[in-house]
Amino acid sequence: MISSELSERLWGFANRLGAPFVVSLAVVALTLVGRLAWWGYQQLPPPRPSEPYCLVLSDEDVAPILGEAVNVFGLDEQLTDYYWTCRVDGNNEQRLYIEAAPDADDVFVNYKAIGVSVVDTVSAMPGARVRSVGDATVLSWVQGGDAYAGWFEGTAAVIFSTMETNDEAIAVMHTPLLEQIAIERGAELLDDVGFTTTPSPTPDPYWTP
After folding, report:
1. What stretches of the chain show up as alpha helix (H) in DSSP?
2. pTM (2 d.p.)
3. What residue ranges of the chain have pLDDT lower than 70?
4. 3-class SS at 186?
5. Which residue, 95, 168, 153, is CA-closest to 119?
6. Rg, the chain, Cα only
């Protein structure tokens, strides 16, 4: 009874004030609802990226390094005729970087000495590990407190790294994990981005850098 009387009084009050008041009240109400909805949306955790990450990686691949994958950056918009890159962020603040190229010695110049191939440069680094897997060479190493592992087949290569770790001890732990990823996913990733492997050219014995 009381609620009915209150409703009638409010309705009568609104009628006396006229339509502009009702419209203004509705606008205020809708604005508040919209702001509350936006606030609620912002409180929701961002959607998890879906597997496979960076075309080929699974949770099983990245979990030992990243924990849970929370963001992926790269994919098609980072693909050119000579370079492709992608990055996966973990909930433990670690990051996994991937770089691929159809010609490693032309593109990965930051990994090589002048006049020396990437494979030969990295192989000569203290503590570097070199493995042959079929026709490919798998390299893993620690440099500047970060872990690296690469799959080199013919002229093409893909390098997995944890750049920005800046911790020698953590990098040493990550190196065998990256090496395993390179072995299991390297050839598949090069195929997916279209960087087909071609035989390495025979060096000219008369050419000097």
Report:
1. 2-17, 19-43, 59-66, 104-107, 118-123, 168-192
2. 0.72
3. 1-48, 75-79, 197-209
4. helix
5. 153
6. 29
